Every structure is written in structure tokens, then in C-alpha cells.
Amino acid sequence: MSIERTPANPDPNWERLFTNLIADPTGKPAGPVLQKTASAPVNRPDPLGDMPLTPEWVRTSTGWRARAAVGKVNSVRAFRRWVRRQNTEHGHSAQVFRGMRRTFLWVQGTEGVQIATARREVQQAQADYKTAKFGHGMRLIPGKEKEKRRREMETAFAGSVTAMGKYKSAQRDARTRRGARGALVAAAIAVPEGAGIYLIGGTGGVIATGSALLALALIGRRTMGGELYDDRDAKFGDTHTLTDTMLTHVYQNARVIGTDDTLTLLTPCTLTADGQAWEVIFDLPSGIPTKKALTAKDAVAGALGVAVQQLNQGRGDREGRIRLRVSLNLPFTGAPARGPLLDVESINLWQAIPMGINLRGQAVSTEWVERSGLFGGEPGAGKSAAANDLLLAAALDPTVPLYLCDGKAGADITPFEQIATMYDTDGDPERLLEILEHIWTVEIPQRRALAKEHGSRKLTAAMAAKDSRVNLAVLLVDEWSSYGAAADRKVREEMERLLRLIVQQGRALGIITLCATQKPDADSVPSGIRDILSIRWAMRCLTPQASDTILGQGYAAAGHNAQDILKSQRGVGIYMDGEGAEPELTRGYYYDDDEVALILGRAFELRAKAGTLPAGSVPLADQLRALGDDQANILAALLDAFDVRSDADGAPAEWLPGAVLIEYLTASGMDVSADTLGRLVVRTDEDKVKRAWEGSRVFGYPRSRVLITVRDRFGLGE
After folding, report:
1. Which of these, 87, 78, 166, lies nearest to 125 by C-alpha position?
2. 311 near 328, Cβ under 8 Å?
3. How far apart are the first and last CA of the chain?
4. pTM listed for this prediction
5. pLDDT of amino acid 7
6. How far is CA 155 from CA 118, 138, 167, 216, 621, in A?
């Protein structure tokens, strides 16, 4: 907002404007100073230059609505603070009781001390009289002594009478004074109450009662220790309430800002809608960088009186701006949320997929097109469960081929074997190299040719909607360091070269690469590959250096340190969604073994229906029947016949007589003669038949020959 200032040099236009203002008592210039159009209202200048310009929109309905919205937020915040304050000694109920007690003490007054003093004097005078009387009543006393004691007894009696008079006078005076003060208090309550009922009715009585309680609360505002309600020195951990003054005091105590500096709040300190945290956006004083606040996370948490895990500071949309969230309790320590993949039939991987829940309870979704990722964390931190969020989603897209490699030879990807195009669960470097070579020499050339056919440099969702050949693919490499340790130098260098090429060139061609590791260090994923993986998820790490290995150098120092994540916060990590995105604490969805089996069962059905299952996942006979061809049905029945007559170990028969095959075909409802069977299975290639059978009469058929026929005619099988 600019400020109009009086020009240093004389300006005719300015002088004319100022003269008109002085001449016109209403303060309106004689002529138009700024041309105003119907569509664009202008600001009114301040001729004296000592006030900022006031935008016209503030006086419009939009401005009033904006201020009303702010007022509503502030009102809600104030009400919530008031409710939380009531269970403390600063609550209004406590103030009312203190006010009543202090009013009662005022009515009672200090006359009680005077009465007690007079009562004590009466008691002492009576004791003196009794002593003097006892001494006078003794018989064996000379006359002069007897007279002396008689005078002492009379004096004591007179003192007793005088003391009793003073005592009764003090009582009368106390009753009078207390009665007057009591009448004053009663009148202060009864008169407004009666007047309110008389003038307004029951509503007036309620108003008068409220006024009386308010007066008592004001009287009891100070605690018994004389303290007024002041949240400046309060800690959030003690009150679970974040206030404006507390916030500034916290950052002063944390040495982020000076003792004379204040924060500029852009939003009020408000409780979130779910009631789990307080949030506020503020600007640091001029000249203080955002990094100073982010690196002082421990000090800020200490000043607030909360655990470091309850504090979340994020960069705003410009330097010096902070988004602060303070949770009432440790976040992500309860049961994980139900995974959304359990409630969907299929997934389109070209669209954003759900990865987890952030601190605000919002679903975190990520578009993996042209992306690659690196997930890491110590064993048991939830890295495998986080990787499953992507793998399970990819499994539910029947068009996506899966290439899965587990260097630690675990069971994490074993459930995916039946739908994976290629996989390695033994930690075999040679098998990983074979998979990478297949992607580089088969997948990528095919995809590059498809992109060229569509006249583009990359594959897109729009192409996939028109061409069923266009799809995404997922490559998972888990525990690269285990593969590298088991391979010789030449194989390791070749694996690294191929993986780097796939990550670099495959992203535009629809190949999503995900690398995961349990030991984040320089050897887990080569730096040349790690630097081009765009999506990062750092689960709990043992050191800040390990956290930086996943997120990137300097993030731990900037307040994004996965070492701060507790062991009880399983599945929680610092998630960075793509290049340039601000890291965010996120809890991945968790799917147990039964849920994984349920989702993969649905994925198998989808792929079987779409015909995208790997060749080994569907029996060859079923693949033949799916073709709907008569000859394919005959060959499928022949394969069934060999399977029916399996040996003791369950292996299919290697050779069967022609009569047995004809009998099985007839029982299956197929009218196939021996001559037709011979032409179908044996005489597919007359030259090959002569070389293989040497022109002899065929009495039986080997299963291997049936498989050759299936391969030659339909391109199925090995």
C-alpha cells in the first residue's frame, strides 16, 4: 500500500487541490482530482500526506464480508479460549466465588476484632474480680488488710462492669455497621433485580442476575495470590491454548527474535476443525530469515512446553513467513487410517494416487507420471508399507506391468509374484541385471516408438485414452546396496549404468522407478541416481545425515530431520512430493497381509479379464481357450489330457497314445478324427515332420510337440 506525501517542491496541481479543500468546508475539491469509472473505483488521496490510502473495496460489501469473516474467526477463537479457561483459578466461576467470599468478608468488616478485644477485656476483668473476691472472703486477715482487699474487690467489680459495657457497645456498633453494609449489598442486588422484573419481566431478572454475577466476578478477578489473568508467561503445554502474546513471547525466549521485536500475525491463533492442534501464519520481523526459526525448533518447542514432535514449522509463500502448527498431543500415535485402496475396484495410475495422511488429517495424493521416488528409513520404520501404497495402486491398474526386485531377499514383494511381469526375490544381481536389460532393450524402445508414432517426445494420459498400447510401468529396486555387495565390479557398474539410464529416459516414457533402502547412506543408492529421484519419503532415521541422504543435503538443519520421528510413530515420514515441494510430515496408509491379499486378488482378476497377466500366471490351456479359436480349443483339451494323466509327482505325462487323446477329445465334446489330429499336431511343417519323425507312422504324440504347435500357431508358451 503506497502512502501519499506532500511534495517537497511547489506543485501547482497540489496547491490547487489543497486550496479547494480549505475553501470547501465539506473537504471536497471543486473539480475532479481522479477520474472515477463505473467499473474501477479509485482510492481517495490524502492531501496532507500523513495517512495511508484507504482502498475503496473496504467500504464495499466484499470488504464488510471479509471483516465479518475475520470477526467470526476471532469470536470463535475467543470463545474457545474462554471455555478452556473456566477450569482454572482464572475461570469466571472461580472469580464469582472469590467475589462472594470477599463481599462477605467486607460485610463482616473489622468489627469482629474490636468485639474480640472487648470480650477479652471482659474475661480478664471478671477473672480479676473473682480473684479479689476470693482474697476478701478469707477470714484470718487483719482489719487493715481486709479493708485493702475490699477496695480491690470493688475496683475489680467496677472494671468488670465497664468492660462489659464496652463489649456490649462493640456488639451494637458491629451489628449496626454490618447491617448497613449488608443492606447496601442486598440493595445493590435486590433493587436492580426487582426493577428489572418490574420493568421487563423475567428477562429483566435474568439481566440483573447476570449483572450481579459480573460484578462479583470483577471483585474476585484477582486470585488469592493477587495475580490477574495474563497469558504472557503461560506455556502451551500447560494451557493447551495458543495466544497472540504467548506466540511472540515464545519466539523471544527461543532467541529467534529480539525482546523488543514482535511477530506480525497474518491469521489469528485458531484451533483446527478437528480440535487436534492450533495453527497460525505469521511474518518474522524484517531482516530475520525463515531458516533461523526453522533451525530453532527445539528451542521453540521448549518455550511452548511441548515435545518436539508436536511442533511443525513450515515455510510460507515468501521468505520470513512461517506456518506454525502445534498439536495438542503427539501426532500419528493412534491406529492408522483405513487404506482407501480397499474400497476401490481399480486405479488409473495416470491420475494422482493416495499415499497417506498429513498432520492436518488431509489425504496426500501424488501424481507419479514422469516421477521417480526414493523411500528410506531404519528397519521397522514402515518403509515397505509406504512402498506398498504405490505398488498396490499400480497393481489395481491392469495396464501397468510391474518389475519388482528385492535385494534383501525378503518376502515384501512375494505376494506380487503372480502379477509381476518380471521379479527377483532372491537378491540375485544377475537377475536384476536381466530385468534392467529387458527394460532398457525392450520396454524403452517400444515406448519410444509409440511416442514417435503419436508425434510426441513422451507418453501422456491423453495418448493412453486413445491407444491401449500406451501405459505406465513400475520398477521397484529395494536395497540396492545388497545387490551391489553381491555383484562383482563389472556387473555392479553395468547395473548402475542401466538404472541411471532408465530413471533419466524412462520417466518421459511412462516408467516409474522407485528405490527403497533400510540403511540410508551413500552406498544404498548411488548419488548419481539418487539426485534424479524426485519424490522422497524419509522414515525414522538414526542420524541427521541419514535423513539428508534421503531428502537432500541441508534439510535436517532446516528443521526437517527424520531423526525426530519417534519409534512409536510407525509409517510416519517426511514426505517431499516432487521437485521444489516443501517437505511434510505424512503417515502412509497401512495394509496388513490379509488386506494385501484381498487387493492383489482383485488385481489378479482385473488383469485376467484384461488379458495382461504374465504368461506364467495363467495356465496355457486357459490362455488358448480365451482366444476363442476352434484349433486353440483342441490344443487346450490336449494339454488337459496330458495333465490328467500326470505321474506320482504331479508332473504332466510326456507322451500319450493317439487313441487316448481322441477318446479324451470326444469326452470333451469335440469331434476330432485321428487324421485331423495328426494334421494339427504333426504336419504343421512337412519338412520338419520328415526330419523329426523320419516318415514313420504316428501312433502317439509327445507333449513337447503339442507345446511347439501352440507356440508356432498362436505365439503362446515358451
Report:
1. 166
2. no
3. 75
4. 0.59
5. 43
6. 18, 18, 18, 51, 135
